[in-house]
Predict the structure.
Amino acid sequence: MSAAPPAVPAIEVQGLECAYEERIILKGVTFQVRRGEIFFIIGGSGCGKTTLLRNLVGLEAPVRGTVRFLGRPFTEADSAARREQLKTFGMLFQGGALWSSLTLRENVALPLEEHTALPRAEIDALASLRLAQVGLAGFEGYYPSEISGGMRKRAGLARALALDPAIVFFDEPSAGLDPVTSRNLDDLVRQVRDTFGTTIVTVSHELRSIYALADRLIMLDREAQGIIAEGKPEELAAGSPDPRVREFLTLSPVHGT
């Protein structure tokens, strides 16, 4: 009996070239993210982490290269096919990016209103369920200005999970949070992956989160304009042949705790 074929990756990136205002930031970026993996994109300031993320999710168009989600072309798809694929992933922006004039329930309900034909009562019930899943039961009627920064991040995660996505992208989720709140958010991210099998892709430079969560990572470098390392953080810190990688991953005494 022949061996079963390997599972189709959650994300396949091939030869991606990304620019910012006509200036090439990244070139030749190629990697895969496995299903159910917590995958980090790391690197120093200005290396193109957020630019890569924006190209992956369609907020910016790459100069060249391809992105596939769950085996389906994304960069090469027409607008209707891409819109359909957008339902399969969620996004947590820095700060949560909540609408200040809407309650938490109303914020979480927005993707459901846009992408489903569910009745109002069911949308509200699902929005409340997502808030409860991130520890915000009882806060459905609060506005973003009435809760803490960590709670806004949780509400943003609830909105990202509204459509039960296969993939969730995070852009610096711990930015601006104190260490305890940051660790609690890390625990929540792991819980989401373990409970729902969600693939997680995170842009971050926070070493504590990298070591606590990352199954694998890629490291970008500004001078190289691309990937200079790929693998498990512990293995790269101990054995990468590139001193830039070892230095980045060993600057903090908290890794591995």
